[in-house]
Amino acid sequence: MNQQKQFCMVRETDYTNEEEIKAILQKGISAETILSSCNLIRKKENGVVLKLPSDIDFLRFDKIDELKDIQKAVDWIKHQNTNLLSECIEKAGDIPLLLPVSGAFSLLVAVAGSDFLFRNLKKSQPLLLQAIKELNVITAKRVINAIQCGVKLISFSDPSALTEVIGEKMVIQYSVEPTYEWMKLIAPSLTNSIVHICPRLSFLLEKEQLCQTEMYQCCGESLSFELLSLGKRKEIAFTGHVCIHAKQCQKITILK
């Protein structure tokens, strides 16, 4: 677990709380304001890619109240309007995009509420596992659609599935094993794109022998820069073990 934590980091500055960003978003949530704020953050960070809001962020844009019901949460996510994301991708033009994607467990926590979901981890296990399986399919289809629209880099994480909160056994059951199944769903579509798996997941995927790893030496640029170059190699689809926010990367771990 310490190894996983060592390679997880956050952006050095949370620009979303800066007045410039707030002023843009106060004009309303639209593709234009989202891209404008994301592009401003990219320039502040001297970033290579424009990082879009995560799927959980898009859920929160709709300001839904916690549903406290597993199936209602799945149905709500299933019928969520994804036109805003599609419009962002289309209007970004030739700017390289990073699309953050969340695991099904974290999507359920975002919509059903953490207190409700954590109380039902054991009591509603079959229903919860079925919900995660269903959301895997939904998320995979949305990611494949984004790839077909030109997205080259996807960052996958499951931030609510923490071993220090629910224990490693449940993280493996509700997050790691479903992540592996999700990877199989989208792998055929990754001929010119790469999915980077959060270290918290990738180390457990390797530990559970769901993935093998191979090291690739690179040039010491930011991870996003190196991944964009790797995306042109059709034999590489998944990477991990280093945080997506890493600013210098000497080697990349390829997941197979």
Q: Based on CA inertia axes, which overall geometry fits?
A: globular
Main sheet: which strands, in order across?
Answer: 1-2-3-4-6-7-5
Number of strands: 7
Secondary-structure element series? HHHEHHHEHHHEHHEHEHEE
Largest sheet: 7 strands, mixed
Identify low-pLDDT runs: 1-12
User: What structural category arises from helix and sheet content?
Assistant: alpha/beta
Portion in strands: 5-15%
Helix content: 40-55%
Description:
The structure is a single chain. It is globular and about 45 Å long. The chain is an alpha/beta fold and 256 residues long. Helices cover 51% and strands 12% of the residues. It has one domain (2-9, 49-255). It has a seven-stranded mixed sheet with strand order 1-2-3-4-6-7-5, with helices on both faces. It has helices at residues 2-6, 19-25, 31-45, 55-61, 70-78, 83-91, 104-112, 114-119, 125-148, 163-166, 168-186, 199-207, 223-230; strands at residues 50-51, 97-102, 153-157, 194-197, 213-217, 238-240, 251-255. It is built from 13 helices and seven strands. Helix 3 crosses helix 6, helix 5 runs parallel beside helix 9 and helix 9 (125-148) packs parallel to helix 11 (168-186).
Summed up:
The chain has 256 residues and is α/β, with parallel strands linked by helices. The chain has one domain. It has helices spanning 2-6, 19-25, 31-45, 55-61, 70-78, 83-91, 104-112, 114-119, 125-148, 163-166, 168-186, 199-207, 223-230; strands spanning 50-51, 97-102, 153-157, 194-197, 213-217, 238-240, 251-255.
